[in-house]
Give the backbone structure.
Amino acid sequence: MYEPHFNERKSDFDWALLLCALGLMCVGALFIYSAMAGHESALLWYKQTYMHQILWYLIGAAAAVALLAVEYGRLARWSGVAYWLTIVLLVAVLIFGTKINGARRWIALGFFGLQPSEFAKIAFILLLANFLSCPAEELRGPRVFWATLGFTVLPFVLIKQEPDLGSALVFPVISLSMMFVAGVPGRRLVWLMGGTGVLVGLLVAIILFAPAKSSIEHYQERRLLEYFGRSKNSSAGYNVDQALISVGSGGFKGKGWRHGTQYSLGFLPRAGAHNDFIFSVIAEEEGFVGSVVILALYTGLLSSGIKIASQARDRLGQLLAVGVVTLLFCHVFVNIGMNIRLMPVAGIPLPLLSYGGSSVVCSLIAIGILHNVHIYRKSY
């Protein structure tokens, strides 16, 4: 069976996907610079940090291009190794990780802080796609369902211990979407979603009415109380209030690049303006028009992913595409949602826009996997 060389497939690139990703990186570079350049007191440090972001874009893009040279079926064969390696890293970060603001999420590697939870998401998608590509009769049996649940719970528990509840909750969403597309019997998924809904409802009820008995971290509890309007601490929702003011103050056309006042005057937290709240920076400077452009770029990215999933040559490719689209959608929905008070605050970065090495590199790797499914969609 003849398989064309990578160079012969260049004309088969999904240019809509690539242009949307490139557009988001360009916007990210512009507005991370804008958010950082406003802090004159630490200008040298911020310039060095900004150059790190550019370097991460280049590293992530190189990794994505490298992935295109290896057919996704071959990549999936190493999914088990990748999954268990990230599990080891998740255990290691709990023991040796750098503690920042009470959380151990990073392993310090010189100028680069490795965040294993981001790489675990990619490895998890590869593993489930490979595992759920089994024959239909096996999917109908209970073994596949319970094994998938086990693969999901393990990283969920470890990441929750960091603590990083926002990233942990991405895993069950990815798992449900991939099991649904794979063809796992609907009754099991209904029972799983129903049970999950009951547990989440009980957790929220405990936090709202008996917070002393909840099992989550105090700051997570405070965020949820503030989201539901039951916080007694007037400063609990300060960051979200300032982000919302930033979004609203931009008006229709915005204040102009590097003319935002919420972050330059320190109202929007300087530690998060270029990260969790980068969308509010863009909305303040470019207004409603800029916000629509960002949403259009993400819509194009996700629509291309859905099209790739529908055109995949086999179930493995389809599941890989669905997993990546679900991952990106979760990050976009939660991050933008928390900037406009539709979602509780969670430490989930905005793909390709937020500052952060692991997030940027893993987002580009995910897009590389998505494009790999596209260029190898035909059988030869």
